[in-house]
Each structure stands twice: as structure tokens, then as C-alpha cells.
Write a structure and sequence with these properties.
Layout (H helix, E strand, L loop, with lengths): L1 H16 L4 H13 L5 H10 L4 H11 L4 H13 L3 H14 L3 H14 L2 H14 L5 H4 L5 H7 L3 H12 L3 H8 L6 H16 L3 H11 L1 H6 L18 E2 L5 E6 L2 E6 L6 E8 L9 E7 L5 E7 L3 E8 L5 E10 L1
Antiparallel strand pairs: 1-4, 2-3, 3-8, 4-7, 5-8, 6-7
Helix pairs in contact: 1-2, 2-3, 3-4, 4-5, 5-6, 6-7, 7-8, 11-12, 11-13, 12-13, 13-14
Amino acid sequence: MGAAYSSSAAWVCWQGSNKSSIESLERAIPLAERLSVPTAGYWLALADLETDKEEQHLRRALQANERSLAALSRLAILEEFRGRREEARALTDQAIRYHRSFKSYMAGLTQASRWGEVGRVEQLAQGALIYSRRDADGVYAQLPDVGMADRILSGQRRTDYFRFLIGQKRYDEALTYETKLERSTPANRHRLELSEVLFWQGRREQSSQLFATLHAEYGTEGVYNARLQMRPSSLGFDWRLSEDPLVRLDWRPGEIAVKLAERQRELEVLSLLIRPKRGKVSRVQPIWTGETAELYWKLEELGDRFQRVALVVPAGGERRFQLKEVHFE
């Protein structure tokens, strides 16, 4: 008897495994019900195949398994489209009770966000964050403002939300939120990224002010890292190092060693954005050693207050030199 039952159940499962065929599913379901084989998955497959009977099949799936997350979530959306919010909310809450998971909380969170239920958004966002082990961008996207983010986020999530705002080009909100963040290496890196993007968006004063909060030297002098004591970041008002494969740059405190391969064109080796405090810079005076003949500094005006300074090497053979310090006059 046990062997016969097992073979029958196996046949049912084999029939039901072909979930692209309505006929196979319809043959499998009655026998599955007689043999007490779970049928919710079969009803869900039928809901996909027969869209005109979607709700009917979803409700049969829910009868077969009252905890079916897929059936509960899809029925909630159908009820919402009909304008029956109470029914939709009840189904969503039922899914969350049965399934404490990222997926169930996100279904409730997006629902509450669509309906503008701020209190429920805050509550469900906190639940979704508990079960979000990696990417929480979907949760962040549902938060209505940085005030809520400030209330419910903690630890690394706060810095991660700052990254999210910059990536979404929500620069005004990012500027507001960064003032609420601690001074940490990850947060400061994102501050540099924000300073960078603001500058090239034409918001140069804001970019400059943000950079100055990180580096008092720049705030006072309008120039940062002229003595090369800090590793260049290539962001904001710090040195930007060439990524050309013909250029190799090695930094150590107080020096950048430059090695150039043979090249057929002139190259910019490094550059710096500055905001001189005592009028425009007209001359760059480096302290360097090595093969520096024919190197020159290019000065470019960037509006009324800002300049771009770039070190250019001519075409030619291999060369090496060491840049130790730069003075701007």
C-alpha cells in the first residue's frame, strides 16, 4: 500500500512539474488532493496561465495553504486595484504575520507608501530593515524624507542611506542628511563623492563648502594637499591622478613618484581644483626632482573663483621624476 501511494504521489508531482501546461495541472490537482499532496503551487501556476481566472485560482491556492505568501500578496494587489483597501491591508498583514521576511515586509511597505500612510511606512520599514541582509535600497526608496531616515536608521545603515541619496541624485537631501552623520572614513568618502558631483553640476560653492568641512587647510588656503602629505583621493579639491595606462603614479607621504612609458602624445599626469584666497593664480612653482625638462603646468579658469591646475608631460620616451610640493603664486 505504501509503495502504491508513493508511486501515485510521484506521478502527481511529475504531472504537476509541467507548470506550463494547463492540461497537466488540471490532471494533477484532483489526484493530488486525494493523496493529500500540497496543491497551492499548482493553483498558483494556473493563475499565471489563465489570467481571466487569476483570482479564482489564487483563492484556491489560499484554501490549499492559508500561509501562501505568493497568493496573499497577489490577492492583496487585486483588492487594492479594486479600491478595497481594508481587504488589501488585511491580506498584507496576514502575509506578514505568517512570514516574517524581507519579501512580506516589503510588500506591506510599498503598499503603505503608495497610500501615503506615513506611520505604517515607518513601522514596516523598520521590519524590512531587520530582514534585509544586504541591499536595502528598496527600503530607502520608500522613506518619504530624511527625517524618517534619521529616526529609524542606525550604524552602517545611516552611511549607506547617504550613499543611496547621492546615487539617486537627491543632492539637496544628501546635503541635509550629511550634517547628521558622524565623521567616519566611509561617511567622509561619500562626502567627497558628493563634493565631486556638486562641483561638476555647477554647484561649486556648495561643493567647496562641503570639502572645507572635511579639510580645514582647504577652507583657509583654498588649496588642499599642496605638500602631498595625504594620499590623493581624485575627488573634490584633492589631487586627481591620471588613470592612463602609460602613467604610473606611486604616492608616499610628501612625494608622488611618476614613471612614464614612451608615448606619442602629451598627457596630463595629475590635476588640482583650487579656489585661491588671494586672487587668481598665475604661476605654479613645484619642488621636484628627476627628469622634469619640458614639463609644464596648465591653468584653466572655471568661473569667477575657481581654477584647474594640471601638470602636462610632452610626447617622448620613458621618463621618471618625483613631485614633492607645489606652490601657487
